[in-house]
Amino acid sequence: NETENSYEIEMAVPGIKKESCKVNVTEYGSLSIKIENKSEKNEDDKGKRYIRREFSYSGYEQSFGLPEDVKKDEISANVEDGVLKIDIPKIKKEEKKSMNKIIEVH
Predict the structure, then answer these.
(1) pTM of this structure
(2) Under 8 Å CB-to-CB from 20, ≥6 apart: which residues?
């Protein structure tokens, strides 16, 4: 979703804790999203002399190319109600103009 001031990404992550989500900007300027979910269930019944253990693992990884008009240092993310929300603020038009630098030729 794009607004006047930012780009917004929302992803469904039901049952995933925020500790399992990693969002970062790579050295190449891409936005990388990694989600890993690990779980382990143990069932121990000493009367019947068995131990049952179940392991599950799921992972997701995606990278997005970022537009040039974003503030990479101000990207934020949070997980709420099973949704990962990433807010990518845009550089305002006034800030873009001030980024131009005149270089003197000697």
Answers:
(1) 0.73
(2) 35, 36, 37
